[in-house]
Amino acid sequence: MKKNLKASRCIFGLVAAGCALGITFPQTAGAVVSDEDFNALKSLVQQMNGKLQSLEQTNRVDQQVIQQLQQKLAETQRTAVEAQQNSIATAQAQSAPRVPLDEATVNHNFQILGDAEIQYNKTDHQNGAFLLADFAPIFLYRGGENILFEAGFDFGLQNNAPNGGGYTTTLNLSFAQLDYVISDYLTLCAGNLVLPLGTYSERTAGWLNIFPDNPLAVDLVPGTGVGAELRGAVPLGNNGSLLNYSIYGVNGPGSADGTGNAGALDLGGNVGITSGGNNSNTHGHLVGGGRVAFFTPFKPHYDLELGLSAQTGEWDDAGKHLWSAGVLDASFHLGPNFEAKGEYIISRFGSDDLGQIQQQGWFAQAGYKLAGLNLNVPFLNNLELVGRYDSMRDGMGTSTHRYTAGYIYYLTSALLFEGDYEFIHSSDPNQPSSQFILQMSYGF
Predict the structure, then answer these.
(1) C-alpha dihedral, 54 to 56 to 62 to 68, nearest 10°
(2) What is the value of pTM for the model shown?
(3) For residue range 55-83, what is the model confidence (pLDDT) as tens digits?
(4) Which letter, b or e, does each residue of 93-111 get, where b requires 16 or more Cβ atoms within 10 Å of its Cβ?
(5) Secondary structure of 158-194 in the HEC alphabet?
(6) Is 384 helix (H, G, I), strand (E, B) or coil?
(7) Domain 103-443 falls in which CATH fold?
(8) What is the C-alpha to C-alpha distance for residues 110 and 108, in angstroms, rounded to an integer?
(9) CA 240 to chain CA centroid, nearest Å
(10) Quick one: which H or E segment has residue 347?
């Protein structure tokens, strides 16, 4: 039974295999492809392969662009985060309490300038001697973007009175003022101000002076005053020309003994505090003044400045008399080696004993550095020749005229050895007819 079943299965398998072969062979024979169709199919496959490669290259380029955009996006996000963090830190710093500046910042904002001199004087009919040993430091401090402070002191030696023995060291506060920069064209100053009556007190006094002593006429106006001032400069055109200006109110001159007599006029004594305890102005009103000037450059080291300044107000304790002054100043540079400047000063004040008193004086000075001769001689290249004429009438019968000739030898740009000879003509018999001055000065 089992054998018959196996035989039947074998026969059925052979029959099925035969049928399958019969069906396959006719179909294979009917599917024969010509060479033309094969080549066409081959070309189509090649075209599709080229397009596929092109698509792959385009995809790679697109991937690079996407990566670059992703990098730029990451950088932009990082910059935004840093900006936000900086903004938060700035806000926290502004709201935080002010802390003392570190040492490096303080030293950067603080400077000491000034000058020192030692002077030998030989006056006609008097013994020659070292008359002056002076040290004048200036302290500068920058308290912020718009806040400045400056103060100048003057240390000196002075012989004591006859039979007093020894000497005295003197200390004077020359000026001390706080400056607030309101804008590029305006600054507010307050304190013991250097007054802009002319330019000598502000720009030429001390080590900046090319002569060992001051012009006579500058004693007719005060050098400083306690009060407040607005000052600045406005550009005129595009060639560097400027209009300089200042306006101020100060205590002004006062009376040395409380009277209105001419001899009591004190140009620098009214600072608001007296030894008797009076802590107000010694007269009823402040004194007003100002200066306006025109400055124009022609080319580097060639320039001209003309200025006009004035001041007027009460001077005696009773407030009955006025003191007024006007100054015309000029400065001229003709290259780096020649400088000329001068001032004309006139003042007028009323008094109880002598009535109206008018004073006037002027000076003109010039200097020429021999380096401008281009001689290439070391000694001459360091030498500057200077000359000055000045005069003064005090309005009370005394007039003085002085002629000065001298030199400056520049040991360095800051260390100067100066020498001057002066010829003096005065109606005051106590004035010498001549004097010789040597001075060593150092600016720092």
Answers:
(1) -120
(2) 0.73
(3) 666 656 566 656 766 676 666 666 655 65
(4) eeeeeeeeeeeeeeeeeee
(5) EECCCCCCCEEEEEEEEEEEEEEEEECCEEEEEEEEE
(6) strand
(7) Porin (2.40.160)
(8) 6
(9) 17
(10) strand 338-349
Distance of CA 38 to the CA centre of its chain: 92
Token pair for 348:
């007028």
- Going by C-alpha positions, the residue among 379, 376, 390 that lies closest to residue 420 is 390
CB 327 within 8 A of CB 352: no
Q: Exposed, middle or buried by CB within 10 Å (0-12, 13-18, 19+), for 240?
A: middle
| All residues at 6 or more sequence positions from 254 whose CB lies less than 8 Å from its CB, including other chains | 266, 269, 270, 282, 283, 315, 317
Pair 201, 209: CB distance under 8 Å: no
> Helix %, strand %, coil % for the chain, to 5?
25, 45, 25
CA distance 422 to 89: 66
Structure tokens of 101? 């500046």
Is residue 345 within 8 Å of residue 198, measured between CB atoms? yes
Residue type, 275: S
d(CA 238, CA 373): 33
Write out pLDDT tens, residues 329-354: 999 999 999 999 999 999 999 999 99
What's the chain's length in residues?
A: 444
